[in-house]
Specification:
alpha/beta, 7-stranded mixed β-sheet, 32 helices
Length: 997
C-alpha cells in the first residue's frame, strides 16, 4: 500500500501503517476467519455494544502533521522543521536543570538501543536481570552520594521527590500528623510549589521559611514539628551548614529531608553525614539531556528505619532456586494493585531508563571523574566570581558550588537581556540579582562572555583570585563514594560497550519477543519515532528558557494536544503529568478544584470499581479523597445495582467515579453510559481511565461515553518506549468545565501565549516543569503524524482482532474468563488457570516462568484476577509471533496434562522447576524426570536462537526478609588500582557477587 505524497514531485513511500500493523492481507484473513468475522468493520459491529456512540468510518484527508498520514521521511522532516523554530541558547539558568555531556557510548548503546528502550517494568525478574542490575547501580550511586543506606530505583523528578519526602514524613509519623512541615525557602521555586500543592488536599500543614529560622526556639511557638525539607545548596546558590538545622528539627521530634544536587555531593558533605533522614534530588545532570524539562530521574534515599515507607520501586538482592544471587523488585506488598489507597504513593513506574543513563554515566566516569567534573564546574564559577569582584560587583554569597547570585541594583533585567542577545540564558532572580549556573559544558569562552554581559569590560579572574571562593572547609566532603568495583572496571570504550551488551543480553525486551502484557500494552516503538528526539534543537533547551526561544516545542505540543483532544472527545488537554498515575492525580485534582469552586467541597468520596488499576485508588487517596469500592457483576462488568446502592448511601459525598474502558477485565461494558448518567445525576464527575485506549482510538471516544476527564498513557497507546519502567507521559484530557483546573505553571515557566495548549489553566502544578516529560513527546507526535484517523481505527480493530484470535485459539486449553455474550473480548483476554491450579497444583506463576524457556515474556500475572494470565498481543505483532505464543501455551498445556495424569509430581515437573538456565542444562549431572532437551528446547526450531535466562526462579520472600537494595560491600572484592588503572577482578555482575557474599 502506498500513500500519495502531499507534495507534487516527491516520491511516494509505503504507508507507515504497513510497518506498524503486523497482521495484514492474507494473514489478516486467517485471523478474521478464526474469530468468525468477515472484516475488521464486521468485528467492530460485533464487539462494540449496541447503543454506544461509535465513530463512523471516515475518508482519508490530505496527509499533514496535524491530521497524520505522513510518510516516514515527511514526518522526520516536519519534526526537524519544528525543532528549527526553537532558538537554543547556551543554558546557564540552573534552577535544578543543567546541560551536560551524555557519553556517546551511552547515546548509541542505551538511548538508541531497543534492548534498553523497549523493555518493560521487571515484573518477571528472571528475564530482567540486566535492567535490574543497572537500576541497582543507580540505587548504589544515590546511596553513596547521599550517605543514606536505602535508595529507590527513581522518582518522577526533583519537585515530586520533595513532595514525596513530605508525604513520607506524614506516613511515618505514628502520632502528631497535624504538626507542621517546614519547607526551606531556599528550595527551588518549583519544588516549593509542587510540595505545597500536594500537601494541601492531604491536610499536611506546610510553612515556608528561610532554613536558618528552623533553629530558632520561637519558631511556630516552639511546637513539635512533623519535619523539614532543607536545601543542601539553595536555589540562589548558597552552600548551607545543615548540621545544626538537622539537630534542631530532630530535637523537636521531626524528620529531616535534604534536597541535594548529585554533582555537588561529590565535593560537599553528604546529607547522611549530618544526620538527615531523607535525601532527594534530580540525577539529570549526571548524563541526561535537558529535554525541555524531562524525563529526568528524581531520586530518594532514606535511613533503614524508613525503608518500608519509600515510594516507587526498590530493586533488591535475593537468590534463585540454585542459590545464585539474583535481583528482583523488593517489598512487593507495597504494590498499588495490592495496597490500593493504602499504597506508599500512587507511583507505579518512574524514570527507569533515565536512572540507568545516570548510573552508566557514573560507571563511565567513576568517582574520580565525577569529582573532577565537580571541581571544574566550581572553578569556572569561582573565576567568574573573581572577575565580578575585580569589577567592583558584589555577590549575594561567597560560599557556592556552581550558582552565583550577582548583585546589580536595579540592573538585573538589563543584564539578563544583554546575555540573551549574546546567546546566553541567565536567571532573573529579582530586580537586583541575576543568577547564573555553570555546568559541565561551560567553556572559558562562555564564562568570559557571560561576565562581559554582567560587567562589560570585566575579565575572568585567574586561578589564584578564584581561591577566595574555595568551597568551605567545614562543608567539604571527606568520605569515599562509588567504591564498588562496577564504578571502576569499565572505563575503556571496549569495556563499557561489552558491559552494556552483557547486561542487555540478560533481558527479554520487545526486540526479541512479543510482550503480551494485558493492561500494560507493550506495543511497537518504531525506530522512526525516535529519529529526532536527541537532536540539540529539542533536547538541549532549558525548561525555563524564554518563550520566544521555544516556539517549535510549543507548536509541537499544541499539535499533539489538539490531536489527543479530538481523538478522545474532550475540549482541552494538559501535557504536564509525567506518568499515567500522575495523570490520574491531576484529573482528580481538577475535579476537586471544580467542585470546591461550586461550593461542593463536601464531596470527598471517589467510587472505584473492584477491577480497577490499583493506582486509581492510590491516586484518589493522594487527591484527599476517600475510596468506596463498587462490586463486579458475574460477567465482569460493574455491578450497577451495587453502584446504585453506593450512590444512595453516599450520594452527597460522591465526587467522582473512576472507570476504565474497555474494562480492566478486557470487555466492552454495555452499561458504561448508564453508569456515567447515574453518577452525574448524583452530582459527581466521571473519570474514565485511559489505560485501555489502545482499543478505542478511532472507534469510540471516552468524552462521548459520558467522561468528564481522562488521562492517556503515551507509553501505551501512543508508542513511547517504556524503558524498563519509565519514562511515561500521562496527558489529561477534559471537558471545558474542568479546563481551568488543569495543571498550570509551575513558577519560573514562561507564561502561556495565545495558541499554547495550556492557555487558561490555573490548577496546581503536579510536575517541576510546565510540560513535564517533554523530551519523549516527539515520539508520540511522530506516531500521530504518521497515522491518520483511518489508520488509527485500523490499529484499534487489529489489536482487538489479535486478542480475539489468541482467546479463541487457546479456548480449549485456557478458557477466557470474561467475554461478551457472543464470546468476544476487547484488546486483551484473561486466561483462567484457576481450574487447572485446583486440579493439578500448577499455578499461573508456573506457566509464566515456563514461558521463559520458550523465549517468551509472560502475560500479566494475577491481575486483575488472582490465578490468571491477562494477554494483550497488540496490533503490531505478526501472525507468526501470535502463533508462536499460542504454540508455546499449547505445549505448556500438554506439560500440565502430564502432571494431571500423575506421570510426574508437580514439584518435580518442568513447570515448577522453570525457568532453566544454561548452567543447569549443561551441567555434568541431570537428575530430573524430564530431559534436558525438553527443559531447554520444548518446541522444534528453538535451537538456533535460544534465550537462556541468567538465573532460575527467584525467591522473593527471602529477599524481603533479608533486604539489600545496593550493591554488596566492596570489601569482598579486589578493587581497581587507580594508580595504574589496572583491575584484578572480573566484571562485577550478579554472578560475580554470588561468591563475594
Amino acid at each position: 500500500m502506498a500513500r500519495r505524497s502531499a507534495t507534487p514531485g516527491v516520491p511516494t513511500h509505503p504507508a507507515f501503517s504497513t510497518r506498524h500493523i503486523g497482521v495484514r492481507s492474507q494473514d489478516l484473513a486467517t485471523v478474521l476467519e478464526q474469530i468468525g468475522v468477515s472484516s475488521l468493520e464486521d468485528l467492530a459491529s460485533r464487539v462494540v455494544p449496541d447503543g454506544l456512540p461509535v465513530l463512523g468510518t471516515v475518508e482519508r484527508t490530505p496527509p499533514s502533521a496535524e491530521d497524520g498520514g505522513l510518510s516516514e521521511p515527511q514526518a522526520v522532516a516536519a519534526l526537524r522543521e519544528l525543532a528549527a523554530l526553537n532558538d537554543p541558547h547556551t543554558e546557564m539558568i540552573g534552577q535544578g536543570y543543567h546541560p551536560c555531556h551524555t557519553p556517546a557510548v551511552i547515546v548509541r548503546d542505551v538511548l538508541s538501543n531497543p534492548a534498553w528502550t523497549t523493555s518493560y517494568t521487571p515484573y518477571q525478574a528472571e528475564i530482567s536481570q540486566g535492567r535490574l542490575e543497572a537500576q541497582l547501580l543507580f540505587q548504589t550511586l544515590v546511596s553513596d552520594l547521599t550517605g543514606l543506606p536505602v535508595a529507590c530505583a527513581s522518582l518522577l523528578d526533583e519537585a515530586t521527590a520533595v513532595a514525596e519526602a513530605v508525604t513520607l514524613m506524614a506516613r511515618a509519623a505514628r502520632r502528631g500528623r497535624d504538626r507542621a512541615v517546614v519547607l526551606d525557602s531556599g528550595l527551588h521555586p518549583q519544588c516549593l510549589e509542587v510540595a505545597v500543592a500536594r500537601c494541601e488536599p492531604l491536610g499536611i500543614r506546610t510553612v515556608v521559611l528561610p532554613a536558618q529560622e528552623v533553629a530558632e526556639p520561637g519558631l511556630l511557638d516552639g511546637e513539635p514539628l512533623l519535619g523539614a525539607v532543607l536545601a543542601h545548596t539553595t536555589t540562589r546558590g548558597a552552600v548551607q551548614d545543615l548540621a545544626p538545622l538537622v539537630a534542631a528539627v530532630h530535637a523537636r521530634g521531626g524528620l529531616v529531608a535534604v534536597d541535594a544536587d548529585p554533582l555537588a555531593l561529590t565535593v560537599l558533605t553528604e546529607p547522611g553525614a549530618v544526620g538527615a533522614d531523607i535525601a532527594v534530588g534530580s540525577a539529570q545532570r549526571l548524563g541526561v539531556p535537558l529535554f525541555f524539562g524531562g524525563p529526568h530521574a528524581g531520586f530518594m534515599a532514606v535511613t533503614e528505619a524508613l525503608q518500608r515507607q519509600v515510594p516507587g520501586r526498590l530493586v533488591g538482592v535475593s537468590h534463585d532456586a540454585e542459590g545464585t544471587e539474583a535481583l528482583r523488585l523488593a517489598l512487593q506488598t507495597r504494590e498499588q494493585h495490592i495496597r490500593r489507597e493504602r499504597a506508599t504513593s500512587n507511583i507505579c513506574t518512574a524514570q527507569a531508563l533515565l536512572a540507568v543513563v545516570s548510573a552508566f554515566y557514573a560507571v563511565h566516569h567513576g568517582p574520580e571523574g565525577l569529582r573532577s567534573i565537580a571541581h571544574g564546574v566550581h572553578a569556572t564559577a569561582a573565576r567568574i566570581a573573581a572577575g565580578l569582584r575585580g569589577a567592583g560587583i558584589g555577590l549575594e554569597h561567597d560560599a557556592f558550588f556552581d550558582t552565583l547570585s550577582v548583585t546589580l541594583p536595579g540592573g538585573a533585567a538589563a543584564a539578563v537581556a544583554r546575555a540573551e542577545r549574546a546567546g546566553y540564558n541567565l536567571r532573573l532572580l529579582d530586580e537586583d540579582h541575576v543568577g547564573l549556573s555553570t555546568n559541565e559544558t561551560t567553556t572559558e569562552a562562555d564564562a568570559a562572555a557571560v561576565l562581559d554581559a554582567l560587567a562589560p569590560g570585566a575579565v575572568l579572574g585567574r586561578a589564584e583570585a578564584a581561591q577566595a571562593f574555595a568551597l568551605p572547609d567545614a562543608q567539604e566532603r571527606t568520605s569515599p563514594f562509588l567504591t564498588h568495583p562496577s564504578f571502576h572496571l569499565h572505563r575503556s570504550e571496549a569495556a563499557m560497550v561489552r558491559f552494556l551488551r552483557r547486561l542487555s543480553d540478560r533481558d527479554l525486551a520487545l526486540d526479541r519477543t512479543m510482550i503480551p502484557l494485558g493492561s500494560c500494552t507493550l506495543k511497537l516503538n518504531a525506530a522512526v519515532e525516535s529519529a529526532v528526539w536527541l537532536d540539540p534543537g529539542l533536547a538541549g533547551v532549558h525548561p525555563y528558557a524564554p518563550a520566544p526561544q521555544t516556539r517549535g516545542w510549543r507548536r509541537m505540543f499544541s499539535q499533539l494536544a489538539d490531536r489527543l483532544t479530538r481523538l478522545t472527545g474532550y475540549d482541552r488537554c494538559s501535557l504536564q503529568p509525567a506518568s499515567g498515575a500522575q495523570g490520574e492525580l491531576a484529573g482528580l485534582l481538577a475535579i476537586r478544584g471544580y467542585l470546591r469552586a461550586r461550593g461542593q467541597g463536601h464531596r470527598d468520596l471517589c467510587l472505584v470499581p473492584a477491577s480497577a488499576h490499583g493506582t486509581n485508588a492510590a491516586s484518589a487517596a493522594g487527591a484527599g479523597l476517600s475510596v468506596a469500592v463498587v462490586a463486579t457483576a458475574a460477567d465482569g462488568s460493574i455491578d450497577v445495582d451495587d453502584l446504585r446502592a453506593k450512590l444512595s448511601e453516599h450520594g452527597e459525598r460522591v465526587a467522582a467515579i473512576m472507570l476504565t474502558y474497555p474494562s480492566t477485565h478486557g470487555v466492552f461494558e454495555p452499561q458504561v453510559t448508564q453508569v456515567a448518567d447515574l453518577v452525574h445525576e448524583a452530582g459527581g464527575q466521571v473519570y474514565i481511565d485511559g489505560a485501555n485506549h489502545n482499543a478505542l482510538t478511532g472507534l469510540l471516544r471516552p468524552g462521548d461515553l459520558g467522561g468528564d476527564v481522562s488521562h492517556l498513557n503515551l507509553h501505551k497507546t501512543f508508542a513511547i518506549p517504556h524503558g524498563g519502567g519509565g519514562p511515561g507521559v500521562g496527558p489529561v484530557v477534559a471537558k471545558a468545565h474542568l479546563a481551568a483546573y488543569l495543571p498550570s505553571g509551575p513558577s519560573g515557566s514562561a507564561a502561556p501565549e495565545d495558541g499554547d495548549p495550556d492557555e487558561g489553566f490555573e490548577g496546581p502544578a503536579v510536575m517541576g516543569t510546565r510540560f513535564g516529560s517533554a523530551g519523549v513527546m516527539p515520539l508520540a507526535w511522530t506516531y500521530l503524524a504518521l497515522l491518520d484517523d483511518v489508520d488509527l481505527r485500523e490499529v484499534s480493530l487489529t489489536a482487538i482482532a489479535n486478542a480475539n484470535y489468541v482467546s479463541r485459539a487457546l479456548a480449549d486449553s485456557y478458557p477466557t474468563l470474561y467475554t461478551d455474550a457472543a464470546g468476544f473480548v476487547a484488546h486483551e483476554c484473561i486466561l483462567d488457570l484457576r481450574p487447572v491450579t485446583q486440579a493439578t497444583g500448577v499455578t499461573a506463576e508456573d506457566v509464566a516462568k515456563r514461558l521463559i524457556d520458550y523465549g517468551l515474556h509472560a502475560p500479566t500475572l494475577s491481575f486483575p484476577v488472582a490465578g490468571t494470565l491477562m494477554a494483550e498481543p497488540t496490533e503490531s505483532e505478526p501472525l507468526a509471533e501470535l502463533d508462536r505464543f499460542i504454540a508455546a501455551m499449547r505445549s505448556i498445556r500438554a506439560e500440565i496434562d502430564e502432571v494431571a495424569s500423575g506421570s510426574v509430581a508437580v514439584e518435580d515437573s518442568v513447570l515448577r522447576r522453570a525457568p532453566h538456565t544454561l548452567a543447569q542444562v549443561a551441567a555434568d549431572t541431570w537428575d530430573r524426570p524430564y530431559s534436558r532437551s525438553q527443559a531447554a528446547f520444548p518446541l522444534a526450531g528453538m535451537e538456533r536462537d535460544k534465550y537462556f535466562p541468567p538465573v532460575t526462579r527467584i525467591d522473593n520472600a527471602w529477599g524481603d526478609r533479608n533486604l539489600m537494595c545496593t550493591c554488596p560491600a566492596p570489601s569482598a572484592y579486589e578493587i581497581t588500582d587507580e594508580t595504574t588503572n589496572r583491575t584484578t577482578g572480573a566484571d562485577v555482575s550478579v554472578d560475580a557477587r554470588k561468591d563475594a557474599r
